[in-house]
Specification:
2 copies of one chain form a homodimer. With 347 residues, the first copy, chain A, is α/β, with parallel strands linked by helices. Chain A has 11 helices and 13 strands.
Chain lengths: 347, 347
Amino acid sequence: MTDTRTLISPADAKPPYFVGVDLGGSSVKTGILDDLGQTLLYHSFPTEIERGPDDAARRMAGAVAELIGKLGLRPSEVKSLGLGSPGTMDLRAGVLLDPVNLPGWQNFPLRDRLRQYCGMPVTFANDAGAAAFGEFWAGSGKQFQSLAMFTLGTGIGCGIIINGVSVDGSHSTGAECGHTLIDFHPDGRLCSCGQTGHLEAYASATALVKRTIEALESGMKTSLNARIDRGAKLTPLILAEEAEAGDTLSLELIVDTAKYLAVGIVNVMHTVDPDGVLLGGAMTFGGKNSTLGQRFLATIQEEVRRRAFPILAAETTIDYASLGSDAGYIGAAGLARAEHARLSARG
Amino acid sequence: MTDTRTLISPADAKPPYFVGVDLGGSSVKTGILDDLGQTLLYHSFPTEIERGPDDAARRMAGAVAELIGKLGLRPSEVKSLGLGSPGTMDLRAGVLLDPVNLPGWQNFPLRDRLRQYCGMPVTFANDAGAAAFGEFWAGSGKQFQSLAMFTLGTGIGCGIIINGVSVDGSHSTGAECGHTLIDFHPDGRLCSCGQTGHLEAYASATALVKRTIEALESGMKTSLNARIDRGAKLTPLILAEEAEAGDTLSLELIVDTAKYLAVGIVNVMHTVDPDGVLLGGAMTFGGKNSTLGQRFLATIQEEVRRRAFPILAAETTIDYASLGSDAGYIGAAGLARAEHARLSARG
């Protein structure tokens, strides 16, 4: 499935332009953005992992060339391309190492191959870091100098921006806050990564479902049983529906998720002390537009206030991200723009 | 008690020069350093808190002028002064807010007052951040681009340097890793700050003594009892002596401290992914020159390897800091030098 959208016209845009590419396991999102972070033209297409990384790089370059052509931009007006990708990766070398979500794409020099095929400088980034930079540049984090962003889904991704620079880390594993310990005890919950006690093992969608199954097995009374009897598969969405319909257990399990998340958020606050912490991803229970989403955020904020240093409890913003699944390609373009500015300043 | 030392002569030094001041609850350490982080002349004097912050600022300026005079340096050769101070503080405003270790010094504009009295630009820093920068510039962290440094003592201080920049935080509380949670449960140990489950509540000297008292109360067999009967006060040093003399309990309590610390270290590694993590402060059990100090470090390294991402377990250096109690004034001078370079680059 492909999707193409025109957002603002070149007449309303501020040159120069930057390309953002967000590579995921199921789709590739591409966009042409102006200097203010506005998207002129957006196009997504299936990743088709089985065709391999070289083929994907060619298709990315083709899609980008088509977007630039459609907009009638001169090549010199499009300065560079940013690529956000799932890990593991070596950011400095521009190489995919062993990306769990891209089976068969091991040890591929994606950055340089893409540079070769699209003929412009390529900035290589972690997908969670790109999403954080997207919110920083053009989303809920626009007013911040520094932020941490948590992407809540099957796992917990994180990106940290300090004074406008993404914390990539010395070994391309900066901002892996989903894998910080919130319980050092040997009986801490088992994480997808094989370690115990990690934030992700308590607060991801996977963890929420696991805690729900445990509650059901312990025989707790809940309307979830009727849903399962009617064939529903346990997901955060089903829990959200039952919580909204008044099921106490479902609500408790979601509230517990918020409290666990708050612990991870306090830890990042006490480590890098950002202006704000943003929450995005699939597991945000409808976000600001839903009563449950508001309750989820309020519970996180309350627990953070209870646990953080008083000055941080009073002054650090905890909010939802605003760009949804567009954050990744927008942030990738933003990182390309920041790198372009750094290199230009050097002369 | 004052202490004055001449370290290298101006003939062997590389200009320009920078002043480092490390303000503590009991003493003020001052030094004149060259562009390579070498100390030309060092002088320390008692803080005498009761004389108040304005008097202290005057005495600091006086001591600095005397050092510069003794060295025969021209004022234009000494570019700026860095001041490391205990918090709480507002780094951007240059103001002490409510420093626990400097009673009566609340809400004092220390940076600007010192600038006024010593007539040169002043860079204001957190003491733990200054110590981390000292190791980064001139100590065990010289080869790193980024590092985290833990200062182990009554509490646990931390400084983080990323790509040469200290993580001060948006509210002057960056790198408060002693107050990150390693146990979210309500029965987590009580920290000096009033919260529960913090690293400091498990791994500081205070926590070690507390855990020792609990072990003694539970009736465990140990040679510590004999020491206490002979009038010894429980301290990490007493535990170290008994551990070295073969007392199993004392050694276990120290090893447990190392394991708790490793959890906090893994958390900072999974959050900012530095090149290295350094350990300094009073509670390092003799450091590299002692068998117990080597055992302490080895236990931390082993536990970090067990808990960290494989690539970080393999590649992140965990080591002792090398500058001892000089790290603070050296780092303060280094931060002044870095700020001077930034301002000069701007023109």
